[in-house]
Amino acid sequence: MRVLQLIDSLETGGAERVAVNLANVLSAEIEKSFLCATRKEGLLKEGLSDNVNYLFLNKQKTIDFKVIKRLSTFVKTNNIDIIHAHSTSFFLATIVKISNKKTSIIWHDHYGNSEFLESRKNGILKFCSKYFSHVFSVNRNLENWAKRKLNARSVSYLPNFASVDKNLSETKLNGVSGKRIVCLANLRPQKDHFTLVEAFKSVNNLYPDWTLHCIGKDFQDEYSKKVKSKVKTLGLSRSVFFYDSKPDIYYVLSQCEIGVLSSKSEGLPIALLEYGLAGLAVIATDVGECKNVIENNVNGFLINSLDYKMLYNTLIKYIDNRKLRNEYSKHYKNYIQEHFSEKSQLEKIIKIYKDIIK
């Protein structure tokens, strides 16, 4: 079979990493694997396998007839069986499907604000969904929502999986070895860096040699400016560091002890899976599917969102107790490797592909 992963950009977001990971692993499992970035390229392009056939469209507007024609021709010329459309790329996939009737669409819903689905707009999506052969939802809330709201033939829950490149080693973190906390999250309001910074200020008062490292796309917008201003106001400029997106995620994480997410809303964060593969002790807010990855007080800690005092107290538990950190990180790594492996998720995906082609 021939499958095209369709994604808006190759920036370092969760949906983008899933699309690249899928294209890469499928290249060894199916006849031909393709990936198309519609609007922007980015750091993730560096991690794309040479065995993946790549197309960049440079789409500039919602309805771009040249882009539609180019992608439609690409699909037809390469005899693509399935367009696996991620996030908002479903609209372009639907238009192309109309002129390529033999091609099927799978939509992969990575919607991050799954705690606030009642306000999600779905008019165009609902229309397009009648052309979807299947929907993959990254958490149970999204799965139930799709079954109630959309017209797709079938819907299933598909947890994310992480795949790390251990060969890259470029980024050297600031701070003291063995005393680093990392937050792998793009600078977006949903990720709530404010609560994290507030909690870390209290940590810094007790343990000034510990540092916080924020890895993720910096959009240089109002949110980014406010977060950095907060760091400066709290006197943390020598203890909190921002690195923007980085291609060598595994190497970055291997330099840290504790991985944290302070999000207000999530699906199943790939960052949490990557923390596990890198052997970090983890803390995350109890939102989305985080509770299905972290078993509180067994292999990590779950905290309430927007609660900086609870986050501070939990960070201190880890900092004060190296034995606890090592025990939880070991249990967590084993759990991630067993339940969120590339192999187990790939089997589910290929089965759906085969059912659709039949």
TrEMBL record:
CDD domains documented for this protein: GT4_GT28_WabH-like
Keyword tags: Transferase
Gene Ontology MF terms: glycosyltransferase activity
Transferase listed as a keyword: yes
Glycosyltransferase subfamily 4-like N-terminal domain ranges (all copies): 13-163
InterPro entries on file: Glyco_trans_1, Glyco_trans_4-like_N
Domain named Glycosyl transferase family: residues: 178-331
SUPFAM superfamilies: UDP-Glycosyltransferase/glycogen phosphorylase
A UniProt-annotated Pfam family: Glycos_transf_1
Protein name: Glycosyltransferase
Native organism: Algibacter marinivivus
